[in-house]
Write a structure and sequence with these properties.
The protein is built from 26 helices and 16 strands. The protein has 589 residues and is an alpha/beta fold.
Length: 589
């Protein structure tokens, strides 16, 4: 008997054990038929004569020709029932039979006779800030047989699934771990699942299969998962993916970034480091440099760093291991150079996690052309935006029209875009930076930023001013788009060579009853442009101390003086603004 294993489609044939599996379930195929199939598989693609089959399977018997045909018919029937798309055994007239499968694979490593209970790797570092997520996912597993952890690139889906696998194993569950990262064909997906399910010979005690990186072939995986669950009643599957499988019975668990918000005062950095994101930063920074003195770090700069990273575990780990960890100002300057500057220094990291650019790019490569074009254009927005604003700013030649909402929904499903309301959305800061990098790569930066500036500085601002005679109401509405207004203003004045557009918007804004911190931003822009301050803004520029009690003045300092990047990063600084700044700004009025 052959000391190897044959895999094809949903089947795994173990000749040494005389067993055929389909989707991990043992098939009822007689001993003689199994030996015939093994002989044909061992000579894959070649014709095996009737005489050779009889000599191998019935070495000491006289066999009627019809007897062999009966076994061939039973084999064909079973294979066709499990895989109706393929005809695997071909009759060659007057010669014999030929076995041929498009996705045939042979493994010379024989199967162990006993099922392997646990192949989930052990975690080498603690899971930080995910206690609630662990309990929630375990509760989902108790309610359904298919649970999918869905989240953005680098948010920690695989790490959470690994921890849950360890927990379930300690509770006595049978666990198998498979990684679909390199699966790019339906045959490859079926082969990986069949191998995992066959190896465990699922019994009444059941099996929990953890399928990581299902987004690599999400469509094919959805079908294979559904088939496996239908054929194996005691099977449970925990999947990780950047988008849902949308299989029957799927429970979706949306994994959010780690929380980084916290209250702290100058000199009390422990408050920041006690947040989940801060705790991960502390642990990874200490692992990279055990001599780092956290008490000497500037709390304001650390808060700015954590706000930029927005609780993304991969981004936090990359930043914490950077050489500039003791100088947060230098680290922020480094990160301003783009997502590729967030480098994962772990040599054994997955290829898709070598840096944040690669991690996000892994998802972008799976977008179709309209999705990718829209994603890049969304990077121009500095804060939360609505679908109607996207319609105004998107390129006319894109012809989104009635397809805009489905495109936005698709980006949300693929964890590249966050939906904050019925028709409002936002990009995370790092994803927004990458989207702007896509605009640069496509040569569309100037055109997209010009449409953005014209919309917010002319149409949006004009509509707000004309909508009411109540100054407080106008001010409140201006503050809801303040981040995009200031970004558009800086582009018009310093990058778009459209000073007239910028000065017109400045003139309208200077006549509004804006908070002092807003006027100080405008004053800074005017000083930069002309070396002087226009009269309506002079009082704020000359008396910054008068604003120091304003609750939002910290943001002004960050914008005008504390930024390590200076004037060259004015647009980037606006893009780093808090996505919920409108709410904070209104509370500061």
């Amino acid at each position: 008997m052959y000391n190897c294993t044959f895999s094809f489609g949903p089947f795994v044939l173990c000749p040494d054990r005389g067993v055929l599996y389909a989707n991990g379930k043992k098939q009822d195929l007689g001993d003689r038929a199994t030996r015939v199939l093994a002989l044909l598989a061992a000579n894959h693609g070649e014709v095996v004569s009737h005489a050779d089959i009889v000599a191998a399977v019935w070495p000491k018997s006289v066999v009627e020709p019809n007897n062999l045909r009966v076994h061939i018919t039973s084999i064909r029937k079973l294979l066709r029932e499990r895989d109706p798309q393929n005809s695997l055994i071909l009759n060659v007239p007057r010669q014999g039979y030929r076995f041929h499968a498009r996705d045939f694979a042979r493994s010379d490593k024989p199967r162990a006779l006993e099922p392997q209970q646990y192949n989930c790797p052990s975690a080498l570092s603690p899971l930080i800030g995910r206690n609630e997520d662990v309990q929630d996912v375990l509760a989902h597993i108790g309610k359904g047989r298919l649970v999918t952890i869905v989240g953005a690139p680098g948010v920690g889906k695989s790490r959470l699934a690994l921890h849950i696998g360890n927990v379930l194993s300690q509770q006595g569950a049978m666990i198998r771990w498979i990684d679909l990262y390199e699966c790019n064909t339906p045959q490859h997906v079926r082969h990986v699942f069949s191998e995992a399910l066959q190896a465990n010979a699922i019994g009444e005690s059941g099996l929990t299969l953890i399928a990581d990186n299902c987004e690599a072939a999400v469509h094919d995986t959805a079908f294979v998962v559904e088939e496996a669950l239908k054929e194996n009643p005691s099977l449970r599957i925990l999947a990780t993916s950047r988008e849902p499988l949308y299989s029957e019975g799927e429970l979706i668990y949306r994994l959010k970034p780690l929380s980084w918000q916290g209250t702290f005062s100058q000199g009390q950095i422990d408050d920041l480091l006690s947040t989940p994101a801060g705790g991960l930063f502390r642990q990874r920074a200490y692992a990279a440099d055990s001599f780092v003195d956290f008490d000497k770090l500037d709390p304001l700069l650390l808060q700015e760093l954590l706000e930029l990273l927005e609780g993304n575990p991969l981004a936090i780990e990359c930043a914490a291991a950077a050489p500039e960890i003791r100088d947060l100002r230098a680290l922020l300057c480094r990160l301003s150079k783009g997502t590729a500057s967030l480098v994962n220094r772990r040599r054994t990291a997955s290829p898709r996690h070598t840096n944040m650019r690669v991690a996000i790019e892994w998802s972008i490569k799976r977008l179709d052309d309209p999705e990718r074009a829209l994603f890049a254009e969304l990077g121009v927005f500095a804060s939360t935006f609505s679908s109607s604003e996207v319609n105004e700013v998107a390129a006319p030649e894109s012809n989104h029209g009635s397809t805009l909402l489905p495109l936005l929904d698709s980006l949300v499903a693929k964890s590249l875009l966050e939906q904050t309301g019925a028709t409002t959305y936002r990009l995370s800061k790092l994803t927004r930076i990458f989207a702007n990098e896509c605009l640069v790569d496509d040569g569309l930066t100037l055109a997209t930023q010009r449409r953005h500036a014209c919309y917010f500085l002319v149409r949006a601002l004009g509509k707000i001013i004309a909508s009411s005679v109540e100054e407080d109401r106008i001010t409140a509405q201006i503050l809801t788009i303040w981040a995009d207004l200031t970004q558009a203003l800086h582009w018009a004045l310093f990058h778009g060579n459209d000073v007239e557009l910028g000065e017109s918007a400045l003139s309208q804004l200077s006549r509004r009853h804006l908070p002092d911190w807003c006027l100080l931003q405008l004053a800074s822009a005017v000083k930069e442009l002309k070396g002087q301050v226009c009269p309506p803004l002079r009082r704020v520029a000359e008396e910054p101390r008068r604003c120091s009690t304003n609750g939002a003045f910290g943001e002004v300092i960050a914008f005008t003086s504390r930024s390590p990047l200076g004037r060259e990063s004015s647009v980037a600084s606006a893009s780093y603004s808090d996505p919920h700044s409108s709410a904070k700004n209104q509370s500061a009025v």
